[in-house]
Request: fold
Amino acid sequence: MDILSAVKSIEVVAAVIRQGDRLFATERGYGPWKDWWEFPGGKMEAGESPEEALKREIREELDTEIGIGRLLKTVEWDYPDFHLTLHCYICTLQGEAPHLNEHEAARWLDYTQLREVRWLPADEQLLPLLAAELLGVDPLLAGFIEEEIISRYAAFDKAHREDHARSVVQRALQMSAYYPEADRDVLYAAAACHDLGLAIDRKTHHLESGRIIRDMTRLGDWFGPEEIALIAEAAEDHRASSDHAPRSLYGRLVAEADRLIDPEQIIRRTVQFGLAHYPELEKEGHWQRTVEHLHEKYYYGGYLKLWIPESPNAARLEDLRKIIADEPLLRQYFEQIWAQEH
Reply:
């Protein structure tokens, strides 16, 4: 007997339910894959079309109705006990809010959160396509960026891991809505590559990022020389302490997206950086370094510049400056973060 022909095959459908910039995911509450995450759906019954099966499964699992759009992808995946054929459709929610009849939990995930959950292996194959779907970029480019570029950030310091890269990507593309002339693929590549130079030298990482981008031959699959130059210049110009303004719209968007003015997060990343790069300092030394850095970069007269008028950073920067001005309050933030990070 042909061993491969003896493997059980299962054909299923799944709904990738989109609501704005978020996708609906569910956590299994049963079976050997309990606690893993997936897109809701199930097996096709005899005589059913994929669309009929998907509507039925969603009614049974979530007590709601969906509108079915295009087929996103059919995934073929070999699990230990069976071969799975998974047809995934982009869907919209048309009924009541989902009610979980079979699943343990559910979440609406945006682009930056897609990898926060543990996906079933077959569903995980969709993540680059889903990034392209949510960001509005070329799917093949997204496959390259998500798997081969953003993965490099895993080796960087705690403040510059994959979550940082994806946050910069998302914010840059969100702000580009005010600039219809911006090419989303160029901006996506620039935002994703902006910190690659950290692998070589932190002090000159923006310049190293530009060099890495110019040497990255795979970018030629999507961009011409002029576009690659724009991507490299955007990375070179993104650093807050740069002595010149960004040379292009892409540089301004990436620079602004890199400056998420979240007061608590900024203070936390300042402490994290100190712990990673100045391990010889005692607690009070880290406190003084935190105060000095926040004043030098973020306080009135600091070197941080905001480049995009539509950015929400202006109001948040004022909130941060109020905390910096109130030293007892800043010390409270520091103490709480120190206890969590040290």
Remarks:
- Strands lie at 8-19, 22-28, 37-38, 41-43, 66-78, 82-93, 103-109.
- The two ends are 60 Å apart (CA to CA).
